[in-house]
Specification:
Blueprint lengths: L3 E14 L2 E16 L4 E12 L4 E17 L3 E16 L4 E18 L2 E12 L2 E15 L2 E12 L9 E11 L2
C-alpha cells in the first residue's frame, strides 16, 4: 500500500548425501514497514530459525528500527536499517538464553532490464559473545506473468558456534518465485 509494506519470507534447506544428513535449516520471517516520509520508514521484524548445524534448535529474533532510502529511483533502490533487537536462542548443547542485540541491514535492488533484477540483502545482529551476518545475493528473471526464476547465493556467518561446528555456511539455489 501507500504507507505500509509487509514482507514474508520462508526457507527450508535440507540436504542428505550418501545417507548422511549435512544440512537441516528452517527459517520464517515477517517484516512490516511504515513510510514516515518518501525516504524514511519505521520497521518491525520477527523471525524464527532452526539450524542444528549452527548449534541451535530455535532462535527467535524481534527487532524495531528505522530505515532510510539512500537511493530511491524506479530502477534502483538502496536502503539502510538499524535498531535494537531481542534474540532468544535454544542451544543444542548448553542453556537457552535471551540477549539484547543491535541489528543493521542493507537492501539493494537494481532493475537491470524490465524482466531482470539483481538484489543484495545483508543483515547483521551483534550481541555480546555472538554475532550473525547473513547475505543473500540473487538474480531474478521473469518467466511469464507473476512467475520468475531466481539464482541466488546465501552466506550465513556465526561468530561463536558450538564446538566442532563451522562458522560459515553457504548455499546456492535455483528457485521459482511467484509474486502476488
Amino acid at each position: 500500500g501507500l504507507w505500509w509494506k509487509h514482507s514474508l519470507n520462508a526457507t527450508v534447506d535440507y540436504q542428505r548425501d550418501k545417507g548422511v544428513e549435512d544440512k537441516d535449516r528452517y527459517f520464517a520471517g515477517w517484516e512490516s514497514d511504515f513510510n514516515v516520509t518518501k525516504r524514511l520508514y519505521t520497521l518491525g521484524l520477527l523471525s524464527w530459525e532452526d539450524d542444528r548445524f549452527a548449534g541451535f534448535t530455535s532462535r527467535l529474533s524481534e527487532s524495531l528500527g528505522l530505515g532510510y532510502f539512500l537511493i530511491k529511483s524506479p530502477r534502483m533502490t538502496l536502503s539502510l536499517e538499524g535498531g535494537p533487537a531481542l534474540r532468544q536462542t535454544d542451544y543444542i548443547v548448553g542453556d537457552s538464553e535471551a540477549k539484547f542485540a543491535g541489528r543493521a541491514a542493507a537492501h539493494y535492488l537494481w532493475t537491470i532490464m524490465p524482466n531482470l533484477i539483481f538484489a543484495e540483502d545483508v543483515s547483521f545482529y551483534g550481541q555480546s559473545q555472538d554475532s550473525t551476518v547473513t547475505s543473500d545475493t540473487g538474480l531474478t528473471v521473469n518467466l511469464i506473468g507473476a512467475l520468475s526464476a531466481r539464482l541466488s547465493y546465501h552466506v550465513q556467518y556465526e561468530s561463536n558456534p558450538a564446538d566442532a561446528l563451522e562458522n560459515t555456511d553457504t548455499t546456492s539455489r535455483v528457485t521459482l518465485v511467484y509474486s502476488f
